[in-house]
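hey
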């Protein structure tokens, strides 16, 4: 058996002009996109207006949705990507196919990011022309980026994460503002996107923190220097004043020095509500702020012994 070898052919040797040659050819042979995209396209039209621009091709897929196709027989650029998105919106298409000779990595990343959303499907295809032996030139289309359920899941996870970060910010923004009426400990601290905010206790590695979870929240003295043994010694020194500290605070505290962890802490948990209980935030904020004021007052005199 004789096995031929693939030889690459310059695209301009096959289609000398992008609009007059390649786009015209693709209009008549749009079925070549099926293998690369899985889209069965019909009703192809050329140069349909989208505002002040004209899309190379627009077709209809197997679901009856519009598909815009933009061709670029050269390296991908921002201009074509911008036009593609404009066409997609202007023509209310559901899918977009961008055919390029050389996809830039940043455009691969951009199309992947676009596919993380749920508004439309984007396909980025690399076009090559090949021969096998002395055969006629043939197109070789390879999907570089496209929609998938995995990509959608990544997008949903990012959205959930972003929403979670915004919620943390809102929670601590309200807490820090209301806390100023009770204590100035966190008065110069800005809200962040993590599940806690802290202010220095005046000793390296020690912070007074607010911590929020789904349905409860903590106040704590967090002890975390690079030396695990030193952390435990500091906690033990404070633990020797446990009775006085808890009496000043007005209730029992959790003294946490679990084995295997470098950091340790003294904390109190409030169960009235947390991050997911937005309707109760005002009451939760007041409870945390009042608790932190009592907690700092109870602990602060004994930090000198450290």
């Amino acid at each position: 058996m004789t096995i031929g070898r693939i030889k690459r052919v310059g695209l301009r040797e096959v289609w000398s002009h992008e609009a007059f040659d390649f786009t015209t050819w693709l209009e008549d042979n749009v079925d070549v996109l099926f293998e690369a995209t899985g889209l069965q396209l019909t009703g192809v039209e050329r140069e349909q207006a989208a505002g002040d621009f004209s899309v190379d091709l627009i077709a209809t897929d197997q679901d009856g949705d519009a598909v815009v196709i933009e061709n670029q027989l050269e390296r991908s650029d921002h201009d074509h990507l911008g036009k593609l998105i404009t066409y997609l919106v202007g023509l209310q298409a559901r899918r977009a196919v961008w055919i390029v000779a050389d996809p830039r990595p940043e455009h691969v990343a951009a199309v992947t990011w676009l596919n993380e959303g749920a508004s439309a499907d984007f396909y980025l295809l690399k076009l090559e022309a090949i021969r096998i032996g002395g055969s006629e030139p043939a197109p070789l289309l390879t999907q570089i980026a496209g929609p998938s359920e995995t990509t959608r899941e990544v997008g949903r996870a990012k959205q959930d994460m972003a929403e979670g970060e915004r919620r943390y910010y809102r929670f601590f923004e309200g807490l820090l503002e209301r806390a100023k009426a009770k204590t100035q400990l966190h008065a110069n601290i800005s809200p962040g996107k993590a599940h806690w905010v802290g202010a220095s206790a005046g000793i390296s590695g020690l912070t007074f923190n607010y911590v929020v979870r789904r349905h409860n929240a903590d106040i704590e003295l967090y002890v975390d220097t690079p030396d695990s043994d030193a952390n435990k010694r500091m906690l033990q020194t404070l633990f020797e004043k446990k009775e006085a500290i808890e009496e000043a605070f007005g209730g029992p505290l959790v003294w946490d020095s679990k084995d295997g962890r470098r950091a340790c802490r003294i904390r109190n948990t409030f169960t009235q509500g947390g991050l997911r209980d937005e309707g109760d935030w005002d009451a939760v904020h007041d409870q945390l702020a009042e608790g932190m004021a009592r907690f700092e007052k109870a602990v602060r005199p004994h930090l000198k012994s450290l």
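The radius of gyration is 31 Å. The CA atoms of residues 188 and 306 lie 25 Å apart.
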